[in-house]
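batch_manifest entry 22 of 60
target: DUF4398 domain-containing protein
source organism: Gilvimarinus xylanilyticus
requested by: lab member K.T.
priority: normal
notes from requester: please return tokens only, no post-processing; we will run our own comparison against the previous entry in this batch. if the run fails, retry once and flag.
--- input ---
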Amino acid sequence: MKSVWLMIPLLCTLLAVGCATQNPVSESMVAQTEARIDQAKSLNADRYAPVALRDAEKHYQSAERAMSEENYDQARQLLEKAMADAELAVATSHAKKSQQAANELEENLRALEAEVQ
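--- output ---
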């Protein structure tokens, strides 16, 4: 009988853990991810980093679906992936735009050199 009494607290703990609800995803996390995706779009990531932008949007949409189903842990993970993809799209867009500007400067320099000779 003593072992039954010892198992009651354990069963209560397991029941409490099993019934615990997940905390909703913070609005700031959603807003930050959405803002980063918008930033990527404004930098023409659809041209410079289309795969990263597509992945960011896909993960964001999946996160929205998970939130509507109240699967908040999965939603958080998907938002983190969306943020990482969006940041990659932003960084890639910046890098490719910088490279493009450097190429144009180099081309202009060559044209000036040709004029001088």
